[in-house]
């Protein structure tokens, strides 16, 4: 295939906005270069993604009917439509049941590639149809290197907390270490059935091993050693689409009520907090979080889902809290335009769960990072940002159970927001250097050009 030949790429990411949005970001990058994208998306969900489609003549949303599965609310399509993490597995089951629809679409479209992540059955289906399958991962290379290498997954026994307290043989980054509660959580997740009676770990490992190639939304400047480690472990091509400096802004404006509220504060003074569609806090932890914001004496805007077992986020707030923070603090339970909020000049600090999409959006902005990961990949991204690159501060947690306090939340916020804090000064300097790297248009351009070239080589 000639270097200038147009590619046709189908995409089918996991039904969570932390995956859908990054897939649309790479779709926009590829479309900008003239390549055609067929984006498979739940039928109602595409309306939320449409404002971020900057090349509608090249990126086509193809609606997928999501079958109803017992245990899900009627018309649930994504993880944002359910009220408990235990229901994510049902969303996965529903996604697995769309396989006949995907097969028909791929037969009709005959794209060069299918980009996928959680649908472990995709490589075999694509192979039957003569389509090249790319495991395009929103999960980091650092995480996959630690958890999903053959030396780990084919060890001959069920992986335990003790196994995950140690990195696999020859793992290249010594600063990536897990706490006991994190290792326990990762071991438990690996043994969990996740859709269609498939173990969570086997779902990922199968997709990695059976795909024609693996791709990461990453760059060597951040994950180079782990990329090389995966190449040596998995014996297949690993492609990198590069940093996300060119995060396309949505075509809509920030909702007036939030724009007006944020404009009432000084530049760089507001804490913004959001944990994505898949993260649920207990009521006790939500209390500690918002009380930590109150303790900081800084204005704050928190977009949070209700805790487990509570109907609304307002009903979960500490007694008297709303009265005490009136005028300087908002806790909102609905969906917000995160990119536009992070862009607002009053935002000085982002308290994040370290989802891939959220970090990509934040790293090109001027806000400082407070890292509060909860599960899986988020933990490794937090450790990369805090311990390896030293561009953010993690909220301290108890070793045995991961519980955090209002004091630890306040301490982390103050570290990055207090201009006189020496640790904070070093972090802010590193943070600005990383931001400049992500905004380097030549670097980003070279990555996407190389990515497209590597795709073309795969089907030459």
SSE topology sketch:
Layout: E1 8-12, H1 17-32, E2 36-42, H2 46-49, E3 59-64, H3 88-96, H4 99-109, E4 113-116, H5 122-128, E5 132-137, H6 141-147, H7 150-153, H8 161-164, H9 180-190, H10 200-210, E6 213-216, H11 220-234, E7 238-240, H12 256-262, E8 270-274, H13 283-296, E9 300-303, H14 313-316, H15 321-324, E10 329-332, H16 338-343, E11 347-352, H17 356-363, E12 368-371, H18 376-388, E13 393-394, H19 406-417, H20 422-438, H21 441-458
Parallel strand pairs: 1-2, 1-4, 2-3, 4-5, 5-6, 6-7, 8-9, 8-11, 9-10, 11-12, 12-13
Helix pairs in contact: 6-11, 13-19, 19-20
Report on this model:
- This protein is of the alpha/beta class and 460 residues long.
- It is built from 21 helices and 13 strands.
- The chain has helices spanning 17-32, 46-49, 88-96, 99-109, 122-128, 141-147, 150-153, 161-164, 180-190, 200-210, 220-234, 256-262, 283-296, 313-316, 321-324, 338-343, 356-363, 376-388, 406-417, 422-438, 441-458, and strands at residues 8-12, 36-42, 59-64, 113-116, 132-137, 213-216, 238-240, 270-274, 300-303, 329-332, 347-352, 368-371, 393-394.
- The protein has a seven-stranded parallel beta sheet with strand order 3-2-1-4-5-6-7, sandwiched between helices.
- Helix 6 (141-147) runs parallel beside helix 11 (220-234).
- It is globular and about 60 Å long.
What attributes does this structure have?
460 residues; alpha/beta; Rossmann fold; seven-stranded parallel sheet; 21 helices; 13% strand
């Amino acid at each position: 295939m000639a270097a200038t030949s147009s590619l046709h790429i189908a995409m089918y990411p996991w039904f969570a906005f932390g995956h859908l949005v990054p897939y649309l970001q790479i779709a926009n990058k590829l479309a900008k270069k003239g390549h055609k994208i067929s984006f498979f998306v739940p039928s109602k969900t595409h309306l939320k993604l449409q404002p971020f489609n900057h090349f509608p003549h090249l990126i086509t949303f193809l609606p997928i009917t999501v079958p109803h599965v017992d245990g899900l609310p009627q018309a649930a399509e994504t993880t944002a439509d359910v009220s408990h993490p235990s229901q994510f597995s049902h969303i996965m089951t529903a996604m697995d049941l769309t396989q006949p629809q995907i097969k028909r679409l791929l037969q009709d479209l005959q794209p060069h590639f299918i980009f996928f992540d959680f649908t472990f059955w995709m490589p075999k289906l694509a192979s039957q149809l003569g389509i090249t399958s790319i495991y395009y991962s929103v999960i980091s290379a650092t995480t996959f290197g630690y958890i999903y290498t053959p030396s780990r997954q084919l060890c001959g026994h069920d992986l335990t907390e003790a196994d995950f307290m140690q990195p696999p043989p020859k793992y290249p980054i010594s600063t990536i270490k897990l706490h006991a509660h994190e290792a326990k959580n990762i071991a438990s997740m690996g043994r969990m059935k996740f859709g269609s009676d498939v173990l969570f770990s086997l779902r990922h490992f199968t997709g990695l091993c059976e795909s024609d190639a693996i791709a990461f939304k990453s760059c060597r400047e951040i994950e180079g050693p782990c990329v090389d480690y995966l190449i040596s472990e998995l014996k297949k091509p690993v492609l990198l689409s590069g940093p996300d400096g060119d995060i396309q802004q949505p075509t809509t404006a920030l909702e007036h009520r939030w724009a007006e509220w944020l404009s009432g504060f000084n530049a760089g003074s507001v804490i913004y907090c959001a944990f994505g569609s898949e993260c649920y806090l207990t009521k006790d932890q939500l209390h500690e979080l918002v009380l930590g914001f109150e303790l900081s004496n800084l204005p704050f805007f928190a977009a949070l889902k209700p805790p487990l077992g509570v109907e609304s986020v307002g009903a979960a707030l500490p007694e008297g809290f709303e009265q005490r923070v009136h005028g300087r603090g908002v806790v909102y339970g609905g969906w917000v335009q995160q990119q536009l909020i992070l862009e607002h000049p009053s935002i000085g600090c982002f308290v994040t769960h370290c989802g891939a999409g959220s970090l990509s959006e934040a790293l090109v902005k001027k806000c400082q990072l407070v890292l509060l990961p909860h599960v899986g990949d988020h933990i490794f991204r937090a450790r990369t940002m805090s311990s390896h690159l030293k561009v953010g501060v993690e909220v301290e947690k108890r070793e045995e159970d991961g519980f955090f306090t209002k004091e630890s939340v306040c301490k982390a916020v103050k570290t990055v927001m207090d201009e006189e804090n020496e640790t904070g000064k070093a972090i802010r300097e590193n943070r600005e250097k990383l931001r400049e790297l992500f905004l380097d248009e030549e670097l980003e351009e070279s990555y996407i050009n190389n990515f497209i070239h590597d795709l073309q080589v795969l089907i030459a």
